Amino acid sequence: MKNRYELLANGMASEIRAGRVPSGSRMPSLRQMMAQHGVSQATVSRAYYLLEEWGLIRARERSGYYVARGASLGLVSSQKSNDVTIEGKVDISTLVFSVLEAARHPGIVPLGSAFPSPQLFPLARLAKSLGHAVRLVNPWSTVVDLPPGNEHLRRQIALRYMAMGIPQSVDDIVITNGALEALNLCLMAVTRPGDVVAVESPGFYAALQAIERLDLRAVEIPVSPETGLDLNALENALNTHSVKACWFMTSFQNPTGTSLSTAKKQALVEMLTRFDVPLIEDDVYGELHFQPEYPIPAKGFDTQGLVMHCSSFSKTLAPGYRVGWVSAGRYSSTVQNLKLMTTLSASIPAQAGIADYLQHGGYDKHLRKLRTALRNQLVDMDGALRRWLPPGVRWTKPEGGYFLWLELPHEVDAMELHRQAISQGLSLAPGPIFSASHGYRQCIRINFGHPLTAKIEGSVKILGQLLETASES
Amino acid sequence: MKNRYELLANGMASEIRAGRVPSGSRMPSLRQMMAQHGVSQATVSRAYYLLEEWGLIRARERSGYYVARGASLGLVSSQKSNDVTIEGKVDISTLVFSVLEAARHPGIVPLGSAFPSPQLFPLARLAKSLGHAVRLVNPWSTVVDLPPGNEHLRRQIALRYMAMGIPQSVDDIVITNGALEALNLCLMAVTRPGDVVAVESPGFYAALQAIERLDLRAVEIPVSPETGLDLNALENALNTHSVKACWFMTSFQNPTGTSLSTAKKQALVEMLTRFDVPLIEDDVYGELHFQPEYPIPAKGFDTQGLVMHCSSFSKTLAPGYRVGWVSAGRYSSTVQNLKLMTTLSASIPAQAGIADYLQHGGYDKHLRKLRTALRNQLVDMDGALRRWLPPGVRWTKPEGGYFLWLELPHEVDAMELHRQAISQGLSLAPGPIFSASHGYRQCIRINFGHPLTAKIEGSVKILGQLLETASES
Questions:
Q1: With an 8 Å Cβ cutoff, are A321 and B146 in contact?
Q2: pLDDT band at B1 (very low <50, low <70, confident <90, very high)
Q3: What domain count does chain A have?
Q4: CATH code of the domain in which B8 resides
Q5: Which of B106, B123, B142 sits opposite A144 (nearest CB)?
Q6: Residue A74 pLDDT more than 50?
Q7: pLDDT of A185-223, one tens digit each?
Q8: Residue where a domain stops, chosen among B334, B363, B392
């Protein structure tokens, strides 16, 4: 049984989602609503607050509430986008923000989260390194550590590349505010407004947001949950469009968890070299491999400086420190200059702290522990899904990272499921946020980066119930 | 008497500066040069190294040296730009980068630096706060402290606004990677490619770089070294152009050190309110006032949420921490979303460390000491300039910050002076980097943010000699 304000909010939400209240239009004032519905001011306020939480309306200072841009996106007709290449302007941010915002509440069970549990990280040991390093920081490093960044840290990163068998020049490594900034700077380095960029479908929504923000256009290349990026479709796109850059995640891809085989990575680089198209390679999950070896990235086959290999410590060691990097090949000085112009440099204590930890903290030992924990959590989550989800739901078997990609029965609408899940206290990442065309309405991404507590198991059970109800209706 | 490699470099530099070697063209190989000039490989290498240091050529991995874009800019004819409004595409980055790069060498006396001496900051006390705060950081804050940022820090900043008499809502404050990111995000929030933006002339080169990077166009509004921004010229620009935003520094402006009077700030906001044009207010030097009171920013007169007030701790407390903010009024949710999309969040330990310091570290006491130090350094630098500079040089008398703006005799070319100064081991900031039209060729900016050591006094003496020679020739 719902409260009065929830009933009111639900009623208005359907009006907005159905597109009957145009986006950008002003919502009625509290006074009008009170009179119209015969309810108290508190009820109207709480209903509006809920609508805002759902991303359907936005408050403007001193002028009331307005219907959010794209609030009715949830109702565009479902489309088959797994095997088509679409090209066009991207409008994804509103949808992504409303989904992220809904999932951010601390009480919500984070099945839809993009982060693993921070309790898997050696935060106390890292804090020790930070405290140690910041006392030793040369005050003049504020000038010296401008891009490309702290040299000690860049040397530590270069050592790891060497251990991986793909040595990179220290001078090509640019330290950034997390991989997200690296990816964005790389995209800026090689495109101008109006250019076409190839992205994965389904793929990481930040790529779509960057494309939208920079007035670029997207060609979506299908990703199979089993075998990864469709290279034939890519070649086709390269032949038909003037593609200026590719932005791909080659290992443990977000959202599917799938990796390209080594042979496909090599073929990818050879193809892009032939077309002279740069690859922005997002490899933030590479260290989280369940097999013994780091899956060699596409960068390992790059002989022309055409691949910009982006990664960070956010998913493996230091969430929140915001330290990432790119080994940017022939684009490194352009990327450095863009970094100088936009955010100047990454936080110097954070860089120095991580450099100290890499040298003295036991990073590889921690990584082994982290990989084991994630692999076990995958087994546990897989078990929970088997126990509680109705038949007809399929999911991937990733060999690294912490994402599962679920295909639901065709009657289920992932956006609707997402809304119901939030109202039941759990989040999930609905398929439509992973494509410019808002496809994948029968898919969701599930996070197994948290230990399977009773609470999380309970939320999987609720998910199962929601799916059963949805299939019946 | 010069070395062989310096002679060689000088000869090639004049060719490049005169535009006789087109930018982008490949420089001769080492082998060709050895044969042509009958010199050793070491001589050629060192000459090329010098040319690179001067920003005239750039190395590309495995393919030799190329003439840098804009390397011949130094020779465009001098122009009177102090009283004209120019509008157009901006090409400033190459020039700025070559000047910054030349000044970055640790041995160079930093008269041209944009930073004060890091030894003026309580770095040890701040490190203690950072060490303390990072041990207490809630691991889950990686999710919670996404934009708008660490709440403790935002509350501390809001308290300072309140003490200043211009209370700001905690919800409007967005934490950024230094003020530079805040300014860039604000500009992105209110413009689209092709839009016209009003900037100061002379003004902070980062504004010009941002305009260039985002494909915007600049209208330069003259700044008088005595009275600041010319409001009549601004009104004229607002009437003639469809200006989408203004980016101004209202107190202790970079590079002139000049402030707008309180009455002019109020008139500025009233004018912009009339035209409904947002103001991006860069107030990073506001805390460095020599008068008893914080000079009220334009934001203090803003009743419509039209002013985005940007500042940071980089110039007052924590260089290198990269923590700044904007109180963005009606644009705060747009700015937050742009932050989420581009760099996700500022470094969480750095935010927490500064928040702890603000609460417990004695920030106001430190600021009083810092202001006294800077005021004394201004007196010292003013004295040194009087002792060593030839007659005919005039400079400003700022009431805060750490920049002096010098007008040189008309025979002197600031770009040429800059090159000579670098070769003598001191930097200065030549006027042309502060305008889209590369004007102010008779002006330089001098930094008094460092205590006047014998070495700095010596460099002022050298500057005087260079000026005398230049005036004679």
A1: no
A2: very low
A3: 3
A4: 1.10.10.10
A5: B106
A6: no
A7: 999 999 998 999 999 999 999 999 999 899 899 999 999
A8: B363
pLDDT band at B28 (very low <50, low <70, confident <90, very high): confident
* Cα of B193 to nearest chain A Cα, Å: 8
Task: Decide if the complex's ipTM is over 0.90.
Answer: no
- Predicted confidence (pLDDT) per residue in B400-436, tens digit: 999 999 999 989 999 999 999 999 999 999 999 999 8
pLDDT for A80 equals 31
In a domain, B82, yes or no: no
Q: Which residue of B has its CA nearest to A343?
A: B181
* Residue A228 scores a pLDDT above 90: yes
Please report the pLDDT score of residue A203 as a whole number.
97
pLDDT of residue A69: 59
Does one domain contain both B202 and B276? yes
Asked if residue A24 is part of any domain, the answer here is: yes
Q: Do A329 and A419 reside in the same domain of the chain?
A: no
The answer on B236 and B98 residing in a single domain is no
- Minimal CA separation from B127 to chain A, in Å: 6
A119 touching chain B per CB within 8 A: yes
CATH no. for residue A403? 3.90.1150.10
Res. A6 pLDDT band, cuts 50 70 90: confident
Residue A89 lies in a domain: no
DSSP collapsed to 3 states, chain A? CCCHHHHHHHHHHHHHHCCCCCCCCECCCHHHHHHHHCCCHHHHHHHHHHHHHCCCEEEECCCEEEECCCCCHHHCCCCCCCCCCCEECCCCHHHHHHHHHHHCCCCCECCCCCCCCHHHCCHHHHHHHHHHHHHHCCCCHHHHCCCCCCHHHHHHHHHHHHHCCCCCCHHHEEEECHHHHHHHHHHHHHCCCCCEEEEEECCCHHHHHHHHHCCCEEEEEEEECCCEECHHHHHHHHHHCCEEEEEECCCCCCCCCCCCCHHHHHHHHHHHHHHCCCEEEECCCCCCECCCCCCCCHHHHCCCCCEEEEEECCCCCCCCCCCEEEECHHHHHHHHHHHHHHCCCCCHHHHHHHHHHHHHCCHHHHHHHHHHHHHHHHHHHHHHHHHHCCCCCEECCCCECCEEEEECCCCCCHHHHHHHHHHCCECCEEHHHHCCCCCCCCEEEEECCCCCCHHHHHHHHHHHHHHHHHHHC
Asked whether the beta carbons of residue A106 and residue B144 sit closer than 8 angstroms, the reply is yes
Residues A224 and A355 in one domain: yes
Co-location of A127 and A60 in the same domain = no
- List the single best residue of B66, B134, B307 to mutate versus A (max A Cβ within 10 A): B134
Residue B411 distance to chain A (closest CA, Å): 33
Residues B215, A209: C-beta atoms closer than 8 Å: no
A214 and chain B: CB distance < 8 Å anywhere? Answer: no
List CB contacts (< 8 A) between A60 and chain B: 330
For residues B239 and B374, state if they share a domain: no
**pLDDT value of residue A78:** 24
Q: Is B49 in the A-facing interface, judged by CB distances under 8 Å?
A: no
- Picking from A361, A394, A411, the residue at the C-terminal end of a domain is A361
Tell me, yes or no, if A141 comes closer than 8 A to chain B by beta carbon: yes
Nearest to A322 among B106, B329, B345 (CB): B345
CATH of the domain at B212: 3.40.640.10
Greater model confidence, A21 or B194 = B194
Instruction: Classify residue A391: in a domain, yes or no.
Output: yes
Q: Give yes or no: residues A110 and A214 share one domain.
A: no
Domain that holds residue B12: 4-74
Nearest CB to A115 within list B113, B118, B143: B143
Selecting from A172, A338, A350 the residue whose C-beta is nearest the C-beta of B347 gives A350
Residues of chain A positioned with their CB less than 8 A from the CB of B305: 61-62
Residues B404, B448 within the same domain: yes
